[in-house]
Amino acid sequence: MLKAPDHQVAGHQALDGHLGPLVDDSGCFYKPLQNDERGSKEVAFYEKFISLTGIPSRIRRFFPIFHGTKNLEASDGTGMHPHLILEDVVFGCMKPCITDIKIGSRTWYPGASEDYFQKCISKDGNSTSVSLGFRVSGLQVYGSKESDFWKPNKKIVKSFTPEDVRLVLRRFVSSDVVPGIDKDVTPDCSLASRVYGGSSGVLAQLSELKEWFEDQTMFHFNSCSVLILYEKDLALRGKSGGAEVKLVDFAHVVDGNGVIDHNFLGGLCSLKKFISDILTDTNKPLSEACLPEMDTSADGL
Amino acid sequence: MLKAPDHQVAGHQALDGHLGPLVDDSGCFYKPLQNDERGSKEVAFYEKFISLTGIPSRIRRFFPIFHGTKNLEASDGTGMHPHLILEDVVFGCMKPCITDIKIGSRTWYPGASEDYFQKCISKDGNSTSVSLGFRVSGLQVYGSKESDFWKPNKKIVKSFTPEDVRLVLRRFVSSDVVPGIDKDVTPDCSLASRVYGGSSGVLAQLSELKEWFEDQTMFHFNSCSVLILYEKDLALRGKSGGAEVKLVDFAHVVDGNGVIDHNFLGGLCSLKKFISDILTDTNKPLSEACLPEMDTSADGL
Which of A210, B47, B60, B147 is the most buried (most CB within 10 A)? Predict the structure, then answer.
């Protein structure tokens, strides 16, 4: 009983006869191995990662559980194809709000082909990767009303400016969701403290991840994404919404050779600062929160 | 009574009729303004930086004191030329060990000219900038004997590999100094705990700087260097050697626009990890310190 996932926000999709991931009804996510070396590199990463004994569970939880690989009927109808068997991170969610954020100011890495380098350097410069150290690759947000839903298409996501990203990360934790990137509608950020804040919220999880990245020198996570997700209905009812941070997409992970992943770490710190700015701002009295940006940032010094 | 500095390790030098910095006998360092916009941008940075009221003194101490600008007879004999008047950070030192480390995996930045971009991307890829997030731009080290001294020329410094950088940062805090990057001579790192360690050592200073960079969103310090310096004779006599970290070269600083400097921060964290690895290693019993790299790094997880 395999089908295309209901809540995929980025990457290749198993629709209209294309090759894409599938899910079953017991919580597994089947990701087709890409035919070139990317597929085998992602398998190699997962296999190495699960074999390492020194990684604490507080870090392991950021990675989808890996159950091996399996040959399955591909979604594009071309016959059997090897798939990674992973944890379906939104299994059981009714209204998961999800954003996929590709981390790093560069997605290329030493040793990549000239073609790949040129493709990446252009994408990085034409997105917010170079300026922010990360870019939003996709998102979906539910609102408080049954019909409220926003899932911008690829073209819109690709055109996000730094200001759009700031707005998107605010709208992501608001009860009011308007479709489109309308700058005149100020998000209420009413769920910010529940989702981003708190001892087990997104900011706390990003801090834990950051601490690991300040020390780990085994892997460089090139072109890897952070998923941020929570269940809208839970959050609207005053619960934390089970906010979770997950790392996904390991087709370009390379050996760290004893050096920390400064590219990922820098981008992660930048994302963390964006999230913490939202929390600072929403915890302020309205009068202060409306101060011009320049003054607010000078305050922090 | 102006003269070329005795202890300059990187950058243009006021020798053989070239334009370069000068020092006087009262602790001032005169840096000629570059003729293009870089000169005026560096002045503008210093002027803005000293005008900011919110920067605590524990951060200000990382920046050379700025005393304004002055027209002086240029070192290249071409007549009067504007100079920045800065603190001479090695004033009064007899045997200053210095290294100039350019921070960031990229030295270019959005908005720079295509020419500058191409020059930078090539230099970054051909040095350790991309792989380590920083590169050594120059150094000088004194040893315990009067004649021991190592100041590799530009060509050698440019050819440093990641392994060379690791060796150089060890030799930088060793009592035995051999000229040349001879991998068969293992540095004793006898001054590591005094210079890199301790509550006011280099690692503690880099941590303080890092904390500021996790929060400050006013400036992006493109192509800026960290100087690490200490006085060899003091360190050899068991003192801390007054180890200091300074930031220099602000000709490519741009407005942070509310975003942290993830490029600088990533490189700074990588340098910090290199320094902390040296401290960890030199504090270990010899038997452990000799374990293969791979095992050592897995230990930390």
Answer: A210
Q: Where are the beta strands (DSSP E) in chain A?
A: 22-23, 28-32, 66-73, 80-87, 96-103, 134-142, 149-150, 219-221, 225-231, 244-248, 253-255
> Considering the domain B96-287, what is its CATH architecture?
2-Layer Sandwich (3.30)
pLDDT digits (tens, 9 = 90+) for A141-197: 998 888 889 999 999 999 999 999 999 999 999 988 877 777 777 889 999 999 999
CB contact at 8 A, A9 and A100: yes
* Contact yes or no for A297 and B218 at CB 8 A: yes
Amino acid code (one letter) for B17: G
Contacting residues of A for B52, CB less than 8 Å apart: 298, 301
Shortest CB distance from A270 goes to which of B106, B131, B262? B262
Q: How far is CA A179 from CA A50, A99, A276, in A?
A: 40, 15, 25
CA distance A257 to A79: 39
pLDDT at residue B284 tops 90 = no
Please report, for chain A, the start and end positions of each structural domain, with discontinuous segments joined by +: 22-87, 96-299
Distance CA B48, CA B42 (A): 10
